[in-house]
Inverse folding.
């Protein structure tokens, strides 16, 4: 198919959506075929990325946030007078803040103090309150501080508890998985996705394996406990989320921070897609898998777009990268 | 001259679990060398093969990012507090 859409031939889509609330825009994200960064890969291997940045809160986390809050309302654990409280490295915080704003519930988020300034500003714009945990202790420090806050006044809060709430993977089982199945006409052979809470890979993988047990489910994780892949968790050195079951995976692919950053730069320049570092790690791993195949359909997820990271270290190396390019 | 260096959780396996260690050095670069002498493995995590601070690592001196000071040549004074801060993990 031509890279340039032809007006009138299914483009733009004939009926733009009309929705009763912004929450109705969660999910149904596009699947983009990558054709430039795949140079050198077998012509019978196709690589796709699901662009989760198209969710209204700007990330894949809108899916679990909406599902966890909806389950809270259904079960009665979340009721008027309660505040939504959770620990997050940022994107779940943005998603919960958005959902809370629409439904009229106050939201408090425990966040490592060193999350990007863009994330803090977005959360503040949705009217949520932030409590900052030690930047030295990362997201596990936020998890511990959040538990302490809940322990001190449990009656005040509804804690979705994204690391331990089965509604998190369930949201992907019900939406992300079926969407990918339909978007690839059931032809997906490999799912490659990062581990943040584990929700995406567990729920999506579970659905896809039910449809076709041959689908390989591969997780992407930082290659070291000390890394710069904001949003991804190095499981061996972290508090293991209760929703994460490694035995359901077919394998894990370690990615270095530098490789992931370089992949982000390539995606921007070659595919016109500006994403965050976790997406860089995802495509690096997806391409590694694709290179080993003669034939297949590899699908990865880009958890968000890159505008939230322009102030972070991801772009500190940009000048060096430009210089390197000029030398080539 | 000795200063306190705050160590992030993922690097505490090199400091015997200590959240804070003492190190000597007139600049951040010298401090990193001293950290490596007493806690082998730390420098490789902080700096790349070329000796530069890795792109994802932030080092703060009294709360200021050394990238906006004088990078590895930032001068250290007695009583300064140095922190090594990585990115944030998952969720």
């Amino acid at each position: 198919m031509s890279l340039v859409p032809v007006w009138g031939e299914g483009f733009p889509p004939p009926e733009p959506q009309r929705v009763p609330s912004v929450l109705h825009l969660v999910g149904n994200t596009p699947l983009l075929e990558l054709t430039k960064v795949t140079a050198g890969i077998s012509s019978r291997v196709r690589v796709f990325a699901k662009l989760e940045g198209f969710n209204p809160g700007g990330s894949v986390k809108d899916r679990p946030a909406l599902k966890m809050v909806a389950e809270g309302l259904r079960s009665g654990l979340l009721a008027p007078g309660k505040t939504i409280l959770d620990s997050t490295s940022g994107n779940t915080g943005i998603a919960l803040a958005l959902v809370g704003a629409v439904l009229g519930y106050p939201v408090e988020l425990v966040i490592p103090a060193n999350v990007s300034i863009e994330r803090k500003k977005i959360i503040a714009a949705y009217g949520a309150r932030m409590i900052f945990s030690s930047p030295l202790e990362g997201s596990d420090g936020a998890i511990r501080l959040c538990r302490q806050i809940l322990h001190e006044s449990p009656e005040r809060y509804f804690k979705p508890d994204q690391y331990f709430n089965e509604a998190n993977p369930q949201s992907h089982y019900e939406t992300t998985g079926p969407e990918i199945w339909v978007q690839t006409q059931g032809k997906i052979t490999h799912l490659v996705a990062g581990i943040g809470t584990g929700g995406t890979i567990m729920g999506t993988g579970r659905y896809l394996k039910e449809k076709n047990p041959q689908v390989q489910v591969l997780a992407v994780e930082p290659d070291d406990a000390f890394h710069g892949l904001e949003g991804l968790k190095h499981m061996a050195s972290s508090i293991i989320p209760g929703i994460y079951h490694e035995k359901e995976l077919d394998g894990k692919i370690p990615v270095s921070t530098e490789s992931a950053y370089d992949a982000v730069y390539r995606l921007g320049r070659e595919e016109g897609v500006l994403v965050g570092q976790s997406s860089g790690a995802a495509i690096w791993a997806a391409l590694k898998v694709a290179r080993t195949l003669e034939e297949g359909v590899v699908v990865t997820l880009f958890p968000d777009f890159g505008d939230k990271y322009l102030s972070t270290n991801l772009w500190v190396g940009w000048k060096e990268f430009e210089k390197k390019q000029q030398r080539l | 001259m000795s200063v306190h260096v705050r160590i992030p959780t993922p690097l505490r396996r090199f400091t015997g679990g200590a959240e804070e260690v003492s190190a000597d050095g007139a600049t951040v670069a010298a401090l990193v060398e001293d950290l490596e002498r007493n806690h082998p493995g730390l420098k490789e995590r902080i700096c790349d093969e070329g000796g530069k601070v890795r792109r994802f690592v932030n080092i703060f001196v009294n709360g200021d990012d050394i990238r906006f000071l004088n990078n590895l040549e930032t001068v250290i004074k007695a009583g300064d507090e140095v922190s090594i801060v990585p990115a944030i993990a998952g969720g």
Summary: The helical segments of chain B are 28-38, 42-46. DSSP finds two helices and five strands in chain B. The radius of gyration of chain B is 12 Å.
